[in-house]
Amino acid sequence: MAIQEMNPSNGNFVVSFQFESAGTIVFRVFDIIGKTIDKTEIGFDQGVTLHNFNLNPLADGIYFMEAVATFSDGSTQRNVIKLNIAN
């Protein structure tokens, strides 16, 4: 999984991911103390998927994005990405 935008970001960025099978992915953005700021769930097909995020309303600072993918066979994959928001 990769963010296709410079980090720091102004809050607008694209996350790309590629998986071998279809499933769903839940993105959760949270602050440094663990408070959930945003949560988005999307479905994806096999191959490359791009998803645009607009987190402009967030104050400048460090945030984290957790991505949990659940595949059609029931397996899961979890990633956490550090976000540096600088408007």
Topology diagram in text:
Blueprint: E1 2-3, E2 12-19, E3 23-31, E4 36-44, E5 47-54, E6 61-71, E7 76-85
Antiparallel strand pairs: 1-2, 2-5, 3-4, 3-6, 6-7
How would you describe the overall organization of this protein?
The protein is mostly beta strands. The protein is elongated, with a radius of gyration of 13 Å. A hairpin with an 8-residue loop joins strand 1 and strand 2. The two termini are 24 Å apart. It has one domain: Immunoglobulin-like (Sandwich), CATH 2.60.40.2550.
Indicate the percent of residues in helices. under 10%
Strand order, largest beta sheet: 4-3-6-7
* Proportion of strand residues: over 45%
* Mean pLDDT figure: 90
Count of distinct strands: 7
How can the largest sheet be summarized? 4 strands, antiparallel
CATH class category name: Mainly Beta
Runs with pLDDT <50, length 5+? none
Instruction: Identify the overall geometry.
Output: elongated
The CATH topology comes to Immunoglobulin-like
Structural class based on helices, strands and sheet pairing: mainly beta
Number of helices: 0
The structural domain count equals: 1
Give the SSE order as H and E letters: EEEEEEE
Oligomerization state: single chain
- The rounded Rg comes to 13 Å
Give the second-level CATH assignment, the architecture.
Answer: Sandwich
Terminal Cα span: 24 Å
